Amino acid sequence: MNDFNRPLVVSGPSGVGKSTLLSRLFKEYPDKFGFSVSHTTRNPRPGETEGKEYHFVSRAEFLKLLDEGALMEHAEFSHNFYGTSFQTVHDIQEQGKRCLLDIESEGIRQIKKTNLNPIYLFISPPSMKALRSRLVGRGTESPQAVEKRISTAFKEMAYAREPGVHDYIIVNDDIERAYIQFSKVALGEEIVGDSLPPDADLTTGK
């Protein structure tokens, strides 16, 4: 099995550029990739469509999937469940496409206990200072929300430092360079990955 046939789990802190990289990849290769759509128990927001943003299910339905072992990873946020099913990945693979998943570190810990056997790719900021600047620059979140995302980012970076967690690391210090590397990994090619920023850059987000 070459790498293209294995699911690709993409992770990295909020604000690091994952959505930009994924959107560009899907636009350039619309027939090669499929994005895993998660299940959730929260209500649809205006403009959201069943099967596009999420598979919207009841709490009872979600717990049934969990009990049946149908979910490879799950978590609870703000009293709502979110999870990724094995079937979603299989459906994409049956279309001859590579399945891409955007998963946080806790989900990765759970997936590593399954037989999914994906490639793990971590997108890193060049520094926590740069990440903070990006989050603040969005202008869409309160200072408290930014601090919460930075706190979560520290945990994501700490997990990424553990040996063997990820197959590849790409530092998004330049979006064009990062996309070239990202698309190569997505297409099943091997790359010489980057190193995570030095610890000194990660001790403060100021």
From TrEMBL:
Segments forming domain Guanylate kinase-like: 5-187
One GO MF term: ATP binding
Main EC class the enzyme belongs to: transferase
EC number: 2.7.4.8
Keyword Ligase: no
Coiled coil: none
An example Gene Ontology CC term for this record: cytosol
InterPro entries cross-referenced by the UniProt entry: GK/Ca_channel_bsu, Guanylate_kin-like_dom, Guanylate_kinase, Guanylate_kinase_CS, P-loop_NTPase
Domain of life: Eukaryota
Keyword tags: ATP-binding, Kinase, Nucleotide-binding, Transferase
CDD domains tied to this protein: GMPK
Stated family: Belongs to the guanylate kinase family.
PANTHER family in alphabetical order: GUANYLATE KINASE, GUANYLATE KINASE-RELATED
NCBIfam families hit by this protein: guanyl_kin (TIGR03263)
Protein name: Guanylate kinase
Source species: Fistulina hepatica ATCC 64428
Source lineage: Eukaryota, Fungi, Dikarya, Basidiomycota, Agaricomycotina
